[in-house]
Known about the structure:
Layout: E1 20-24, H1 48-58, H2 62-65, E2 75-79, E3 83-84, E4 89-99, H3 133-144, E5 152-155, H4 161-170, E6 174-177, H5 192-200, E7 204-207, H6 212-229, H7 233-242, H8 245-275, H9 279-288, H10 290-300, H11 310-336, H12 339-346, H13 349-361, H14 367-371, H15 374-386, H16 392-415, H17 425-450, H18 458-472
Helix pairs in contact: 1-6, 4-5, 9-11, 9-17, 11-16, 11-17, 12-16, 13-16
Amino acid sequence: MSGLPCPLRLATRPVAPPLRPVLRLPEKSGPFGSFDTFGWTWGPELSIDENLLRLALVVRFNCLRVANYTSGRCSAIMARPPRQVNETHIDIEVVGFGINAPPRFSPRRGLQDTKVPGVRHWHQGMANNEIHSEMQIIGRCAREGIPVRGAWFYIALAPCWDCCKALVAAGAARVLFKGRGRRAPKKTKANPREQLFAEANGMAWVHADFCPDREDYVDAAWEAYKKELGLDRAAVKAQASAGGLWDKIKLPVYAGLWYFFNVQYNIENKKLLNVFHANWAVSWVQLAAGIPIALFMWSTGLVKAPKMTGSDYAKLAPVGAAFAAGQVATVASLGAVAVSFTHVVKALEPAVNAIASALVLGQVFHPMVYASLLPVFAGVALASSKELSFTMFGFLTAMASNFFFVTRNVLATKFGDVGDMGEDKTQRKTNQLAVLTFVATMVLLPVCLFLPGGLLSIPSAWNAGPSENEASE
């Protein structure tokens, strides 16, 4: 070990010159195949432990690449103990990788800042909701039937108490980890309680010596990866200056198109409801129109289709019912009063959302947030008093749509996501809306079949429409 630039305390002896490593990494088609090693290669001048610890440290960059998560502070790898296969070669098998990240298989994996009801000053954000890297490896090995007993773990930080117990329970034989920070650690034991527990149960607890060369290697790998992504400041500026016109204007263009089509929807909806008195039917058809659009995206591969079970759809039934009720109330209000007045009342939806979040989710905002809503209440009251087309029915249905849509949002947050909606954020949000549209359409169907103004009223409303239109002309 004296000739090595980075000796490790209690590390295995370096590979003798005649022995050459036969390195085996997880297969790309296997359960750990999505992880990248970011240019890591075996250093023949380094010990087995030093090589594998450096691999564990660069695996951390997968927090950004795989989970789109920038707060991950730790990573780990699991390897089999080195085994000499003949006089010239030694077998080194890396079985799995792990990163600190929110659980990928949890229905609440996408939470950012949802406050836990009844718990003060504690948020269920991604950092607080993450699972540690060694636990990720153990969990995935359990799902895939990969044995952990006798394995060695190389970890970027000392395992916490819970992870230490899990490693012992899983049968890990050895844990090697790096100390915190870029300076040499003090001459004290790292996590003494965990070390005593591990050694008492036959698991070796190895704290790697500080090594400046190792820190420089990881920093260089990170800078190279940031440059590849365009995250370094110089590259970002160069890319911004070299970007085309479309890259600069696409956001306002998309926002403008969204407003344009929203306005057109409201105007055409009002024209339709003036001559076609079938509010329930119009509401259902507008919801159902989203289904062929979703099917087209899924069938053409524009968006990966979600994976749902019957129980998943059942859990979404209350959310779909609130979605459908909000749609019906909005259409009813548009038919009763002026479009502008409906949307003046619907401006109260953020206020209703803030109140409902506090009552149901326990998510309380700063008092200034609630104070900022007072002018909105005053504006709606003033507009209602001056509105010539004001009717109590139009006002109440507009307010009902606020409550129903807020209920949809709160229930969706409370119950969390269900099924596999995809890993990409845009894909996940698109699939969530598509699935909710499908559920809302199915929930509303039996209701609007037989009610007046429902689907069975379409022929009579269609026949009555032209005469009313001609009379208005």
